[in-house]
Amino acid sequence: MTALASAAMAAPAAAAEAPVIVPLQGLEPAIPMDAPTVATGVPLLIPGGPTGFHPGRAGELPDVGVPGVPLDTTLPESAVAAPLPEVVDGSELGQVLFTAPRSKMAAATPGAVVGTPITQPHADRFGMPGLTAPRAGVIAPAVTGTLDSQLGLARPTA
Q: Which one of 54, 101, 126, 153 counts the least CB within 10 Å of its CB?
């Protein structure tokens, strides 16, 4: 019983995407052709550990920051197929196909940096730190990866 429960809980965690088929059949009365089909998925993000604190400038104490959180995922395979309309009666041109295979993506959430209001101790102040105006900033989010999509025509099979 315990083995079955652990296997059932591990199966959703192993899935890297949630499949989605977009229902477009409601468009058929409004357009003079069959509705296109769209099949894709929603990637499930896998958060990693924080990227760490960022060091301060030379001669200052390190900045206190809210580190960005890295996210890794695989974009799911996507396919869009749209039938071409008949230009001449009885001629079937086929379908336009747009496909994008699975691709690895990495991202990082935004972070924040807040400068400390004190400086390092100075010898001319008997070892006491000095005061400065605090600074704040935002670490920009980042997305890296490649998307290799293909566009083509598919002829109808006889």
A: 126
